[in-house]
Amino acid sequence: MNNNGGEIMDISARNQLNGKITSVELGAVMANIKIEITEPNVITAVITKESAEKLGLTEGDDVCAIIKSTEVIIGK
Amino acid sequence: MNNNGGEIMDISARNQLNGKITSVELGAVMANIKIEITEPNVITAVITKESAEKLGLTEGDDVCAIIKSTEVIIGK
Amino acid sequence: MNNNGGEIMDISARNQLNGKITSVELGAVMANIKIEITEPNVITAVITKESAEKLGLTEGDDVCAIIKSTEVIIGK
Amino acid sequence: MNNNGGEIMDISARNQLNGKITSVELGAVMANIKIEITEPNVITAVITKESAEKLGLTEGDDVCAIIKSTEVIIGK
Amino acid sequence: MNNNGGEIMDISARNQLNGKITSVELGAVMANIKIEITEPNVITAVITKESAEKLGLTEGDDVCAIIKSTEVIIGK
Amino acid sequence: MNNNGGEIMDISARNQLNGKITSVELGAVMANIKIEITEPNVITAVITKESAEKLGLTEGDDVCAIIKSTEVIIGK
Q1: Class of domain F21-71
Q2: What is the dihedral of CA E75, F2, F5, F7, to 10 degrees?
Q3: Which of A56, A66, B34, D37 is the most buried (most CB within 10 A)?
Q4: Testing the interface with E: which of C22, C25, C34, C49 to mutate, by most E Cβ within 10 A?
């Protein structure tokens, strides 16, 4: 976690999983980011290339995968 | 995983985290479900009460938390 | 529907519309997939290129468009 | 379609399925609306109770289920 | 607002912010659109390139940024 | 903004609109929160009751409405 312009705030999104970036793939508009949260769980996040660049995301970065609870589907 | 009407299919959602339900809270329309994926990570899912009942979700169930990659925000 | 690694599971997403893929367009990170569900209804899905490739999506495939009910907006 | 305050506009959401409301169930904050788009396809939409009331949604209404293409998951 | 094929309809999405497009960036599948709603607030929307072209989005257009209330996260 | 357990982090969500809460309505599972961002723009956010309580959201609070750019639809 860094503090480049970051603000101290709590957010309502219930799911905040800490992990490390294992890959960053940039397209023209979007970027595909892989985050290893716990072996063997990997989270794939697709964000704007703009965000990936503003946050300076690179392999090895410690990041947090944030997911609002209404976005989760349950399979059983 | 059970097979009550389930179909054999792969789905495009990249994030499929296996875990166990630790709590089910029903409202009039929605339900709040807690899924422990790996100590100490807990996923909160808000789904319809209708779905929670159709899937028969109860504490201790082995389930899968499914999240499309476009829904993930990254914090750093 | 195939069973390449698929699991037998029910999912909480209420909307599961069967149809046939009529076009697959790949970008660098994302893919735009058209699914004809019933004449003249066509569903457009944007998923990762990675998912499109892992599922081997091609024209003519029988697929299911899955949509969580919280994602639907109503116009009247 | 009515014109109570409605505006003439096109929207970017690719998926706009016409149908008829078959049930409206109100909770304290949310509402669960069933829309039959084509036999036997029914779309479930969860919207705020506030919206359901402002649009005056009732059984038999002709409505449109609007879904952004990034919200669609594909199962195969 | 134009009326090229637009319909007179109210939509359930609670958040409809009027603004002006300040930039359009096209990728292969997706497009990144900036909308200035009120100084200094700018909304970034990522939609399909297909939608950007069908709506003919260009700098200076008066548009409306539409956001379903379940998609909003609160930071405090 | 407070710092009760908050972390110093930047997040990838492009849309972060500052405003003040004007109403909080709690249901059994969900909560409907109104945030005035700039006169006359009001953002409606539906979050879990659990989050509303953990953040201690009340009228008059300065908060930030966070929206991922893929969730924005454009009307023209």
Answers
A1: mainly beta
A2: 60
A3: A66
A4: C25
Of all residues in chain B, the percent with pLDDT exceeding 70 is 91
Per-residue pLDDT 10s for chain A (76 aa) are 333 445 578 999 999 999 999 999 999 999 999 999 987 789 999 999 999 999 999 999 999 999 999 999 999 9
- C-alpha to C-alpha distance for A29 and A22, rounded to whole angstroms: 20
For domain C15-70, the question of CATH label 2.40.50.100 is answered with yes
Question: Alpha-carbon distance E47 to B23, whole Å?
Answer: 36
Hey, are the CB atoms on B12 and C48 less than 8 Å from each other? Answer: yes
Mutate to test the interface with A, among C29, C32, C66, C71 (most CBs of A within 10 A): C29
Residues 1-30 on C with a CB inside 8 Å of D are: 1-2, 13-17
Cβ-contact B45, B38 below 8 angstroms: no
**Complex ipTM:** 0.92
CATH architecture of B18-68: Beta Barrel (2.40)
Q: How many residues are listed for chain B in this entry?
A: 76
Helix segments in chain C, DSSP class H: 49-54
List alpha helices for chain B, DSSP H.
Answer: 49-54
Residues of chain D contacting C2 with CB distance shorter than 8 Å: 76
Using CA coordinates, name the residue in chain D closest to B30. Answer: D30
Mean pLDDT value across chain D: 91
Instruction: Identify the CATH assignment for A15-69 out of 2.40.50.100, 3.30.930.10, 2.40.10.10, 3.40.190.290.
Output: 2.40.50.100
